Amino acid sequence: MSPGPARGRTAGADGGGPRRGPVRRWQLVRAGSDAVPPSTRRFMARARQRRMRAALPWAVAGGLAALVGLVAWTLLGTGLFGVREVRVVGADLVTPVQVRDAAAVPDGVPLARVDLAATARRIGALAPVERATVTRDWPGTLVVTVVERTGVAAVPQGDRFVVVDASGVVFRTEPRAPAGLPVVRLATPGPDDPGTRAALDVLDVLTPQLRAQLTELTVEGLARISLTLRGDRTVVWGDATRGVDKARVATALLGRKADTIDVSAPDVVTFK
């Protein structure tokens, strides 16, 4: 019996050893959509949607954080919104230059970094300024609104007059008494001076008739206060207590022909 042909081998043409047949190579072929069952496709789609929904809040938060960081850096870390102008409103006794110098805010400093309260306190330290408010006007302006002190009396000091407000604060010096202000003669004007406070208490309770006649108020001591009226008439006031009663009685006696009206004890009035 003759042997059959050898499987998977062929003899070499030159009579050499056996030779292998053609090598089969595997090739990756992408399956078409029809090859995936519909249920599997639906499951995979739902899984993708769940992943997207889970990642969306993180993506939004990350985007917002980046946006906030960019805005903060722009406002606080660059001169893009820096101070270009200090606008002063309500200043009359002080000049805008004085207000800007007191504010001490350098040009170009980021507007968002300006300490508004501290700036207002520095401006409020100016003697004529009763209070100040500072606000931002984007993109590059500080607005300073000033409320100045109002004088209620002029106090002679040497050859000049200092003007005090209702709190006794000295905030102006003038060569002569400003028109419309009564002259108050006392030694040491100031908000902490007892004589100044007593004089202001008396001025506060004067009736319109007394105020219209008043030319000077003199404080020689806390119990020695007197008013000088037009026509060289004098009202002896005494101390600052019972001011309303004293003002009422003195007003009622203005029509009397008397050079001196003593209301230091308003229940027992004397005049001469």
Could you walk me through the main structural features you see in this protein, from its secondary elements to its overall organization?
The protein has six helices and 14 strands. By secondary structure, it is α+β, with helices and mostly antiparallel strands. The strands form four sheets. It has a six-stranded mixed beta sheet with strand order 9-10-11-12-13-14. It is elongated and about 145 Å long.
In terms of topology, how is this protein built?
Elements: E1 9-11, E2 18-20, H1 38-77, E3 85-89, H2 96-103, H3 116-124, E4 129-137, E5 141-148, E6 153-157, E7 160-164, E8 170-174, E9 183-185, H4 194-205, H5 208-213, E10 214-221, E11 224-229, E12 233-238, H6 243-252, E13 260-262, E14 270-271
Parallel strand pairs: 3-5, 9-10, 12-13
Antiparallel strand pairs: 1-2, 4-5, 6-7, 7-8, 10-11, 11-12, 13-14
| Helix/strand order, N-terminal first | EEHEHHEEEEEEHHEEEHEE
Compute the average pLDDT: 85
Helix content: 25-40%
What Rg, in angstroms, do the CA atoms define? 47 Å
Shape: elongated
Short description:
It is built from six helices and 14 strands. It is α+β, with helices and mostly antiparallel strands and 272 residues long.
Which terms summarize this structure?
272 residues; alpha+beta; six-stranded mixed beta sheet; three-stranded mixed beta sheet; 6 helices; 14 strands
